[in-house]
Design goal:
Elements lengths: L6 E4 L2 E3 L17 E5 L9 E4 L2 H8 L14 H11 L4 E5 L9 E5 L7 E7 L10 E5 L2 E6 L2 E6 L3 H11 L3 E3 L15 E6 L9 H11 L6 E4 L4 H17 L5 E5 L5 H8 L8 E5 L2 E4 L9 E4 L1 H13 L11 E2 L3 E2 L5 H9 L3 E5 L3 E3 L13 H18 L9 H20 L3 E9 L2 H5 L3 E9 L6 E7 L1
Parallel strand pairs: 3-5, 3-13, 13-14, 14-15, 15-20
Antiparallel strand pairs: 1-2, 4-5, 6-7, 6-12, 7-11, 8-9, 9-10, 16-17, 16-19, 18-21, 20-21, 22-23, 23-24
Helix pairs in contact: 1-2, 2-7, 4-5, 9-10
Length: 465
């Protein structure tokens, strides 16, 4: 039960303003992307928000030369496809197997045995810094990597470390021992003390850890870089179940494990049946920036088709279908016949086809039930998010018929807006509570939604408390 105390304007006169009639539904995100993968640079196990591919390169470094038989780095390559597809807000997590190594250098002073004054390390673990050069001339320490060059001047070990910590993007330095802080850095040597490694050989254990970090983020579409449905399908299903239970619904996009139609049916489609999972085939052709030869084009597996489609889906409003939408692929690794396309569609696979460019044949999820269209699932998620946002200011207020009527008016305004935006062609809404529920601060919101271009009626019951 809430208590409202009015403000006394005139002696003996109190005015109480009830704000329920002013409550509305604010903005709802629909295109935020979550992705996890391996990289040569950047923090491991941290969520970072990116707005462009250049930011991705700066934070996670360039990808290595692609090899279908090795363990190439996946995150930056997948982000290239995400932003190529139109992604604009990406929550990215670098994952790694074990503890990736960090390139280090030892700054040693004069004297017997040339004792170490302090240690310099690359700013983040990974192979990105293995080509970096760290030199010391007089009292100036210089770090060089390609066209990047940083210089730091300090008369003593403590001064030098302080300068590096304050102004470097390439390196960091450990505090010297108390006995070494005042020692001069002039005429000392810098010696390489260890190389960086990437930990690229990840498993579903690391993928799950990365997805867990995204569970609490405002993410609408999620994918795992470089991993196919056969490998990471079960992990994604568990993630989707957990986030839906927490009221953070999202859709996952995953690539098929091969281009073979029969294998897709047996290995991938049979293991996935979920209205929140999109299974994509075939793979795509793309230029490999790590190659130096004239022909840079490589065949990327469908996991990268999933990244490209993730970016494309993020550009569309919830009620806009992916069917026949173009995607920015250079080509496909396989061009299916009409019979093969039909077989894949019957297995609930989203197929890319060559037709005036590269296009989506039909925008469907892997669901075997009534809500196979991607747009229907996104519309329902949008409505649920709006109800949560609109209902939140009412929690803690009086749970009586007047306040519930105001809550219904707020939600009516939101759902009417969805009708005007052509997400819905109709809906029914009730906000109810029994006497026992009133006492316990519980209200039931029951919606029956009719999404646009769908014969489906979706009934949603939400308990607010």
């Amino acid at each position: 039960m809430s208590e409202a105390i009015g403000e006394m304007i005139l002696p003996g006169t109190y005015i109480e303003v009830r704000a329920e009639g002013l409550i509305g539904v604010g903005g709802i995100s629909t295109g935020n992307i979550g992705i996890v993968g391996t990289a040569s640079k950047g923090p491991v196990g941290e969520v970072r928000i990116l707005g462009s591919y250049s930011e991705a390169l700066d934070l996670f470094g360039s990808y290595d030369r692609f090899s279908p038989t090795g363990t190439p780095l996946t995150l930056t390559r997948a982000l290239e496809q995400v932003f190529k597809g139109g992604g604009s807000t990406v929550y990215a997590v670098r994952i790694a197997s074990g503890s990736p190594g960090t390139m280090q250098w030892s700054v040693k002073g004069d004297g017997p045995g040339t004792p170490e004054l302090f240690k310099v390390s690359a700013a983040s673990p990974g192979s990105w810094a293995n080509a970096m050069k760290v030199t010391l001339v007089d009292t100036t320490l210089t770090a060089e990597l390609g066209r990047l060059k940083e210089s730091f001047t300090g008369a003593t070990a403590a001064d030098m470390v302080s300068e590096i910590k304050a102004g470097s993007r390439l390196i960091t330095a450990a505090d010297p021992a108390d006995a070494d802080k005042a020692k001069p850095v002039k005429s000392v040597a810098v010696v390489s003390a260890g190389a960086g490694s990437d930990g690229a050989n990840v498993t579903t254990t690391e993928a799950k850890a990365g997805l867990d970090l995204l569970a609490t983020q405002t993410v609408n579409i999620v994918t795992v870089a470089g991993m196919d449905a056969k490998t990471v399908g079960a992990t994604l299903l568990a993630h989707l179940e957990a986030t839906e239970n927490d009221g953070r619904e999202r859709i996952a996009v995953v690539g098929a494990s091969s281009d073979d139609v029969a294998k897709i049916g047996t290995d991938d489609a049979n293991a996935l049946s979920n209205p929140r999972v999109i299974l994509v085939a075939p793979g795509i052709l793309s230029d490999d920036a790590a190659r130096t030869e004239a022909n840079k084009q490589v065949k990327l597996p469908a996991a990268y088709s999933a990244a490209l489609l993730t970016g494309r889906l993020s550009t569309l409003a919830p009620h806009i279908s992916l069917t026949n939408k173009d995607v920015a692929a250079d080509g496909l690794t396989d061009e299916y016949t009409r019979a093969e396309q039909k077989q894949l569609l019957n297995n609930r696979v989203l197929v890319l086809q060559k037709n005036l460019g590269i296009r989506v044949l039909k925008g469907i999820t892997t669901d075997t039930g009534a809500f196979r269209q991607i747009s229907v699932r996104r519309i329902v998620d949008y409505a649920k998010a709006g109800v949560r946002i609109g209902s939140n200011p009412y929690i803690g207020r009086l749970n009586n018929s007047r306040v519930r009527a105001a809550l219904k008016a707020t939600l009516d305004g939101f759902l009417s807006g969805m009708v005007l935006d052509e997400m819905l062609i109709g809906y029914q809404l009730d906000v109810t509570a029994t006497r026992s529920e009133e006492i316990n601060g519980i209200a039931l919101v029951t919606m029956t939604l009719q999404p646009t271009f769908s014969i489906d009626f979706v009934k949603v019951i939400m308990t607010l408390s």
